[in-house]
Please model this.
Amino acid sequence: MANPVIRVENLSLRHGARPCAGNCPAMEATTQSAVCPVCGAVWALRDVSFEVWPGEIFGIVGESGAGKTSLIDMLDFRAEPTSGAIYYNGWREGKQPLHDASAEERRALRNSDLGIVYQNPRRALMMGMSAGGNVIERMLAAGERHIGRMRSRAHGHLDHMELGDRMDVETMTLSAGMRQRVQIARALANRPQVLLLDEPTTGLDLSVQARTLDLIRKVQRELGLTVILVTHDWGVLRLLARRAIVLKAGRVVESGMVTQLMEDPQAPYTQLLVSSAL
Amino acid sequence: MTERFTTGAWDAPWPFAYLDEFMKASVRLAVLRAVCIPGYQVPYVSEEVPIARGYGSGGLQVTLSLIGPDDRYKIIDEGDDETVNAVNLRRMVGLVTGAVATTDPERADLIQTRHKVPEVPLREDQIVILQVAFPDALRFFERSEAVARQMHAERDYSKLWLRLYESVIAHGEIMIGGRYPVMIEGRYVLDPTHVPRWDLPKLDHSPALFIFCAGREKRIYAIPPDTTVEPLGFEDHPFRVEDQTGRSCRLCGSTESFLAPALGPDGEMTWTCSDSAWCRKCRGETLEDMTWQTL
Model:
């Protein structure tokens, strides 16, 4: 049996420098809030565990402030876990916590194994550069130095995103939906193992949203990518993901198949989320 | 003031070379550090000098810290000895040190320059000091100094190649005129200021010491003698110097020096040597020395 690509074990992230003794034991009593009632520290995530299997699209749902982006930040090395660990089977065979990697190894992992798509394309893209340049930058970071080879590869990725003819256009001049697709092409530039999608279609109008989601699904199937999808939108989740966890105040309140979560939500919070979405 | 200078003993109303000893020592220390880590930008305390920031205050501080009373110095601006900036800096250095200035790069011990490296081959007993406006090649992409330092530490230089790529896409070849990024000994990428691409091969394994100093940005970095200096490039679009085929200097006829555009007598486009000392030498003129009294 294959191993999970990503295994998250008891992952916690605390903000604030006033932890009580024993990692805020008073938190166990409150499930409504991410703030420790005794010391006031904010637990963006608390004891989150899940596994992501090869080739699947795994969803992370929750309203804003639930800890979704904190989770992505840790997967992308932009935050260090307070406790717990992430294991990735492409690094030390998944036997050592991912955050033991050195700065250089982290950069190599981010370049070769990880692709990330942010909600705000300005976070990833250089607006003054061409669309193709933004894709090629990741290849340059991985050490490629041949313009002809890089351009043909970048053209392939942009063509997947139906932007093959916009390769040398300045990114600033592209529409929001196009920028988002350039971002996806950029994330795919080095054929990553894992694609992180942080609210990839939020803020786009519905028809563009549907088209972008279609493209993501197509690419995911063709390349056999493992995808972690963070969203607050049950529609997006139902279209793409099969399994998901529901986060609330930094804790997992429910997990399972997406269809099951939507048709028969068990936790009151999930029921609330589903009923407010439909 | 003139009388005081000529008494022989140091009797001017300022310390030798204007800067106080502590300041000179701190600049020299920063220079030593910069030489130890080729291409690394060493922060230093940039003191006030009697010229405005951005007019070569960094280069002037290094020159004043390194010069001795017996040294010959040369100061050029865009290759020319006679531009306003060069003339005034030369006057000032002469006045505060009593050292002899020269226009001949071969006789100079110290050469302070802006935007040009002398055309003649340099020797190992020479120091070239370049005035720098922006010390960091990553400044084009990263506004935060802290992030740029992290990028240097991790050798995260892909965006510099991206700048070259965008130039290739726009013009068909790399057409960057100044601040062309160069890699030092395969480690740090350094901003060689606005010297033309023409000058970059001269930096590679040069016997002379190159010191770069940005007074406003308070950074010193260096290329020590015999150091590998590799301009960035691509496998299919390698680094190339400016194409000067069919051009020659209007004054001396030279085709081997970097040519700058100039309007001819009838308003037509002509080319002249950027390095005025080279041009005068080609025309058989003698390159004179100047003492501070004659400056």
Observations:
- Chain B touches chain A through 16 residues (CB under 8 Å).
